[in-house]
Write a structure and sequence with these properties.
Blueprint (H helix, E strand, L loop, with lengths): L12 H20 L3 H4 L10 H19 L24 H14 L3 H16 L7 E4 L2 E4 H23 L7 H18 L5 E5 L3 E5 L13 E4 L1 H8 L5 H6 L3 E4 L14
Amino acid sequence: MPPSRKRARRYDPVRTRTAVLAQFAHVRTAVSALTPQQLDAPSGLGAWTVRELAVHVAMALSHVSRHLELPEPALAKPETTLLEWPFATAERAGRIADDTVALAAGHPDPDALYAEVADRFEALVQAASEDRLLATRVGVMRLGDFLVTRTVELVVHTYDLNEAAGLDIPYDRQALAACTRLLADALAEKAPGGSVEVRVPPFAVVQCVEGPRHTRGTPPNVVETDPLTWIRLATGRTSWARELDAAKVGASGERADLAALLPLMG
């Protein structure tokens, strides 16, 4: 992915941190109630069990803490921006999977791991500046930006856990909003332009796709869907054709077919 062509929207670091902890708490409550048999069941994500998926959720926070405990990278600016992050994760998938399996093997009690991770995260992140640089898997990023990416990890894997274990884990509204907005902005980054308006109420509206730019009145090309459907589309949990057939996506106009642009993340 080429360097970002536009400035990412700003996210309030306190609200983002609160949202991350709130979503993590929702997941912890649900995971703590799972039986050993449920934890050892397949997750539907490759060879992972539900236990390994649950441990992977904990890594969304522990990765932040681990790098906050290391010296700050001696760079003048980040290597990876917020809008570049969604496109930089796929090539690290193999290593992430291996790390997840190893961590799960060493932590048979997910709830104990969640408690340790949450306490460490709160203690370290609260005292750190949003401009503090972190050496993440995809390059050096600002802490404030990296926290926004944690909402994507948490919301997406909350959906995965709900599907895998028949759970009904709720979505924190602020976490869902941040996740939706980042993935909508990533679409506009991938396909810059102004011929299609993508609406994900109540959280995001973006213009994308090259062609005649809409300036007034009703846009000629409009896509509209709900936040969770948008997130599932953007992360490959469902397909454009399936959600169009199910009337979960509305698309009007000759340019309003986003199938070739999705998913944004694998």
